[in-house]
Queue: 3 jobs
Job 1
Amino acid sequence: MKTFLTIIEIIAALGVIITVMLHSPKGEGMGAIGGQARVFSSQKGMETGMDRLTYACAGVFIVTALLIAMIQ
């Protein structure tokens, strides 16, 4: 059981890393100086889906971490 939970936790951790890296940057950075930051805005539907996927992976990671801690 512990091995299964550990594998699920590793997969969830990789999922969190990948989904966080795929998010579009929120800061305007140097583009704010010239007003170019608003030109390349991302799609809201895709961001909402990425947020939900990130929350789901993070939730699975936390639950499996707690379950592994209770087993020991």
Job 2
Amino acid sequence: MAISANDFRSGMRQLAAAVNVITTVHAGKRAGMTATAVMSITADPPQLAVAVNRSNASFEAIGGSGIFAINVLPHDHADLASRFAGGAKGDDRFATTTWDTLTTGAPILLDSAAVFDCRLLQTIDFSSHVLFVGQVAAIQVKPTSTPLLYMDGTWASLVRASAEDFDSYDQVIVQIDAAITDVLAQPMRPTDHLMAFSRAFADISVGAIDVLRAFFARESFVPAARLESINLRKRTVERQLQGLLTRGVDAGEFVPLDPAATAAAIIGMLNSVYRRPDLSGGEISHQLSQLIVSMVARRPGQPHHH
């Protein structure tokens, strides 16, 4: 069965690819293009290839110069990718960023996630495109950079599943668990316990806001066993909070409620702190603790049912 061009493109839209700017200099003029069709050929010797449409202005420039650089763009360079994809022309494409050279003389983007500076070894014809195979003459790498991706017609970015991020988040849960244990050990009414716990939870979260953001951005990539160990610790916090809510109902301070659902709602509110970097720890912890207590507190004159 023949595969239509539309069917092929539809499938390729799901193939996420790193976004690169291919650069060269020929007859004193810089040229460049945005490309995702870049592939590794061999590691020993190091060789890469890029597919270039014959109609692209960079086709003649690369073939004439015999050199090219593959600049792997970081995730915050979508604007540059657009410029080299046709948003600007000629040397104007190079105007907004800082460029240098390594070995071949091809322009290299200084803040690239990686640069492969290549000498042209071979050209292979493929219909409307030519595959330029290059010998890598120099490499520049930023291992911690997050590359820009292209998928389904739009820009995307790589999410790194970092064990360090998971460990740091786990330690935040340890602190919260210890905080509620300390609060419950104090001789206070359930209302005051809930107020103190909410304040402590919010203060800890504000202090670890970068850790929370990193974890929640990567949570779906956490290995199952690691995530389960984190969730077990979180359920310990939830059980302590459920017990506090139940005692508040028994003492007539809280309205009748579902302790499990209410605890989940409270923790959800407290977890949202990482979305409010504009507020100080003291300010947001005060606001949240007041709101949480008002949600569950029995009003004067309200009947006490249990």
Job 3
Amino acid sequence: MFVNTSRRIRRVIVPIGAGLLVLALSASVWALALRERANKRLYLEYEVYKAVTALTDIVRLQSLQNEDTQNVLGFGLYGGDGKPLTIYGKAPSSMPPLDQHTPNSRFILGKDSVILLRVLGGDLAGRRMMMGNDRMSRPRPSSPLNPLPLVPPYQDAANKTPALSYIELSTASYRAEESLLILTATIASMALLGLYVVILVMNRRYREAKDREIKDRELVELGEAARTIAHEIKNPLGVIRIQCGILRRGADEATVAGLSLIDDEAVRLAELADRIRRFLKSSDTKASEVPALRFIEEFVTRYSGVLGTTIDIAAGAVLMIDESRMVEALDNIVSNALDVSEQADEKPMLEARIRHRALVVSVFDRGPGMSQESKSRIFEPFYTTKARGTGLGLALARKTIETSGGAIRYADRPGGGAVFTVSLPLL
């Protein structure tokens, strides 16, 4: 139990650890992106303040030129009564008169532009009167984040002294940079998510490889034990058969029948031992060039009358197989089809065709088919659904076919039944 718990813990450590790491990296990416976005916002405010100051100075000294209004959608200077002194572009034709409730500056960031309303002449006599003589209460600098109330309006509008400035700048480049920043953060997050998926897939494959390694090690140990048992069981079975033959002499009919049953079971056990030894034997085969058409025709002749056939094989097609072992492999498949078709009205069918430089042999039956569990375990050694089956027939058939470079697969037959398909490469 402790081993299973430890194994389960190890299985979840990598996904959880990788997930936390990816989340931390993704959070860092977005934190940097949002911080850079805030910095760009501050830089935008700085650029707007710098632009309004520069344009105000230019207007005081001379008229605006085209090169001065690049990226400027609107600019205006207004007196304390809100009347315009200078207007350019989309600047309003007038402003509300300034009073004590008017903020020192207003920064408005829209979708396509940014607007700054700023009161000019910050060191006014009225402000000094409002603040008093205490030096600790002198006015703080103007800031969009810290607006200060304006003192009473200018009294020298007759001299055309500007009291309020208005500027509107295009934010196309700012929005493009902001979108690029968000896009970069999104792509980075998606890349981290993809990395997490890759880690999960690699971890799953690693676990599967480890499980296969453990299972293969257990199978090797089981195979060695089974090989030893299969070898050692041959001699006792031979002795049993010999003794049965001796006891038959002079025995009555009932005793002979019982001895025949013992002898038959001994033969069955001997065949099972042979199958186990063949399955556990190395994959070395005596492969030779075999004409595909001749091989299939000779094979189906053995099932004449009980097996329907369709053969479409070119005369020059050649296989590289161990013929005797391949016949045994196909025998297993056809025998299973005949067994499950005993209660069916339709006899099994064998089709042999050439497809994509391979001999494809399909065996169809109208039996009950297979359950979902059987489909996943059908080629496992010692797995069988028959009462007296050994579970080695299809496992041995798959080993023989794969040793020849081929493949075998199972599928449900439309209308009921099963289809086993064997594919063998041609030379």
